């Protein structure tokens, strides 16, 4: 399975996006500001705990996280980042570089109460595909040029 995270332009330090499965939105996302400079090393543009992960394709698994517990959506192979999880939260200050999920968003936050159901929905989808013997991948795309 391939999930796609299509980002919108960053606004006041936050980046709203959509998590898509087969072209259909299954959740909104919230991340830190996009700071990536194409062709430049991550160390040159990353601000620790305040930067969205780079565009690319990443493997997703369900792992036990010391902070988020069992069956945490985990993102592997992100250059310059460690411990990237897809989890719940409401503000870009909650991300520390991780994508957050929510069913409803404003221009820069996830609406209260909308995060947990989105996380559970995506976990079920990922768990089902993994149980069927498939790998799960996440394609992250920056905003399309206007």
Explained architecture:
By secondary structure, this protein is mainly β. Helices cover 14% and strands 36% of the residues. The protein is built from 2 helices and 8 strands. It has an 8-stranded mixed beta sheet with strand order 6-5-4-8-1-2-3-7, with helices on one face. It is globular, with a radius of gyration of 14 Å. The mean pLDDT is 95.
Please describe the topology of this protein.
Layout: E1 2-7, E2 14-21, E3 24-32, H1 42-45, E4 56-65, E5 69-76, E6 84-86, E7 100-102, H2 115-131, E8 136-141
Parallel strand pairs: 1-8
Antiparallel strand pairs: 1-2, 2-3, 3-7, 4-5, 4-8, 5-6
Strand order of the largest sheet: 6-5-4-8-1-2-3-7
SSE string, helices as H and strands as E = EEEHEEEEHE
Note poorly predicted spans. Answer: none
Give the total of beta strands.
8
Helical fraction = 10-25%
Distance between the termini: 29 Å
- Strand fraction band? 35-45%
Structural class estimated from helices and strands: mainly beta
Mean pLDDT: 95
Q: What spatial form do the alpha-carbon principal axes imply? A: globular
Biggest beta-sheet profile = 8 strands, mixed
Number of helices: 2
Give Rg in angstroms: 14 Å
